[in-house]
Specification:
Number of helices: 6
Distance between the termini: 35 Å
Strand content: 5-15%
CATH class: Mainly Alpha
Helix content: 55-70%
């Protein structure tokens, strides 16, 4: 006979795996975020990073999101082609490229921020309702899940 605890653990794992699958499927999804171009998930998160900082070096973006400078350069090139971002050479070090948003990129940035504010309000209310102990358990679960994903890449 399967214990109730084991059934509960299996249910949690199943829901977690379904969530991971749903998240991975969103990488192909796109929105326009108030512009006239399709913006993919990887692109909007680079836009978010740039918008939060005003301007940022390609190498810093790569470091912050844990990918290569080449990957960031490719994404930034797509953003430039769509009129969302522009690169310039750092005046103090001409080997570094600085990225900033264009007016269209700023429109996408603001729309993305608003989108997250609307979509995350429910989650924030839920998290605020948790006790400190419940929050710590949830945080530990997410940390462990993140480490497991890192180990399987």
């Amino acid at each position: 006979m399967v214990s109730v605890r084991l059934m509960h653990m299996n249910s949690i794992i199943e829901k977690y795996l379904l969530l991971v699958e749903k998240i991975s499927n969103t990488t192909k999804a796109h929105k326009s975020f108030g512009t006239d171009v399709d913006i993919y998930r990887s692109e909007i998160h680079i836009i978010q990073l740039i918008g939060d900082r005003g301007e940022v070096f390609i190498s810093e973006i790569a470091r912050l999101i844990g990918v290569t400078k080449g990957t960031v350069s490719q994404i930034v090139s797509r953003l430039e082609a769509k009129g969302l971002a522009e690169k310039s050479v750092d005046k103090s070090n001409n080997t570094r490229q600085l990225v900033q948003l264009t007016p269209k990129g700023k429109t996408a940035y603001r729309a993305h921020v608003d989108y997250h504010l609307r979509k995350h309000r429910e989650m924030e209310c839920y998290l605020a309702s948790l006790t400190e102990e419940q929050s710590l358990v949830l945080e530990k679960f997410l940390t462990t899940a993140h480490e497991m994903i890192e180990d399987h890449q």
